[in-house]
């Protein structure tokens, strides 16, 4: 291993040479408190910045084991450190000058959710720490400005590292608060299972966000308050007793006038699959981690999905047991989303009328009497939601403000009034009984066999000249094929999409042999990420510093939407 002095001498020797001479700096160097590894050097000052990692041994990092002795706590600590480091390097971003991306210093930017990222990984075995970042190596035009890189590596970075990644210099109360919150959140998750709940929303929680483009909490929002009949007390290990609304397994209907906060409640439940940071307002909004938001998704592709539970007897006798299309309608897409959600192992569907296909959700009595059932290919969700729970154990939370049809079949009916929930189950049931129009029986309920086997097309398998690109939270591009993910509303970070593209490539290269089922493949990918971290996704010698682990449900959903996979 070379010393920091050797790197400095090397940099001085390439000063004012042309940019590619920077390549010679690749390697690992011993600094007083850490190892600095230059993993990948950019080709020119305008290319995506160079990748650098900082390795701190367990003794120097000094984090007490209680901060990371479970997977969720480890993730929470890593997340905390990434945020601290981000704040530190922001002070020096572009302080070193030059052309293009010269002087850029960046690390993953964490949002409201606490997620596992490649940016920071702590080894639970010995407490050692790796921080992965990007640096724009400075140049004037295309001429190396070594002096500027020396400023970054010797004047800026060491201070950032010591003040944000070493326990002895951190605010210990904050570190303990991160641990305590995580323990409380995990406690609620465990209690959901124990008490037969699918979600818990604490009294006092702030559900609405600041704006359509900001995930921060709304100021002066009406704080959440459980109806007395649904109130549970959670005895949190750190916070102490906490009251809130528990939603039991089964079918929950959310009604209420427009603008009374129905969608906001559902959105909070969608995001409750993740833990949130302190101050978010949704710290104690915890949902079954497998929950899937179900919506219509016109024009998505579907490959060999058995949607016969919902769609049957199509004109022309088209088969719906192995349904494929390049351009799905609202109802067929939503039907496929249910079936694929089941395949991904979910136990909770979250549905908002705002984003559903009406003909998928209901079919009113008048229509049933005019158009005979046998002339209607769609069995609406309302005719299946009861069996989904009774026979498959899948709960549903359904927001429906404009149709009373679900009154008959719901276990609990919540009305949102001025942003507060009221339990109107008894009253609504009574009204429904006198109103008639109970849900009609549908054809027999049968969960399809999940043995689809994906195979990549040749375009996806062109691994030699692999081009990968992430388009925000909208889509991923691999070579020429684009997979549209914009309607996966539980993807919260573009780094999750980056990881999905690595997973897709890894799976098509190593796992999709036409024999393994989709489920086998996803489980195998998860085993790899569990045991070897996100790093194991990348075949290149350096790891992209900007990956974030997606849930199992989104891995399934991404593969299901990839047009370059054929399912047999
Ligand atoms: P609905 O789905 O019932 O039509 P939304 O959930 O879309 O209503 O909410 C309507 C508006 O009210 C949104 O702009 C939202 O930000 C705001 N809102 C939601 N919940 C609250 C709350 N608890 N306090 C203040 N404003 C809220
Ligand atoms: Mg709404």
TrEMBL record:
<dbReference type="InterPro" id="IPR046833">
    <property type="entry name" value="ABC_N"/>
</dbReference>
<dbReference type="Pfam" id="PF21117">
    <property type="entry name" value="MRB1590_C"/>
</dbReference>
<feature type="domain" description="ATPase of the ABC class N-terminal">
    <location>
        <begin position="5"/>
        <end position="167"/>
    </location>
</feature>
<dbReference type="InterPro" id="IPR019195">
    <property type="entry name" value="ABC_ATPase_put"/>
</dbReference>
<dbReference type="Pfam" id="PF09818">
    <property type="entry name" value="ABC_ATPase"/>
</dbReference>
<dbReference type="InterPro" id="IPR046834">
    <property type="entry name" value="ABC_ATPase_C"/>
</dbReference>
<feature type="domain" description="ATPase of the ABC class C-terminal">
    <location>
        <begin position="174"/>
        <end position="436"/>
    </location>
</feature>
<feature type="domain" description="MRB1590-like C-terminal">
    <location>
        <begin position="467"/>
        <end position="567"/>
    </location>
</feature>
<dbReference type="InterPro" id="IPR049069">
    <property type="entry name" value="MRB1590-like_C"/>
</dbReference>
<dbReference type="Pfam" id="PF20446">
    <property type="entry name" value="ABC_N"/>
</dbReference>
<protein>
    <submittedName>
        <fullName>ABC-ATPase domain-containing protein</fullName>
    </submittedName>
</protein>
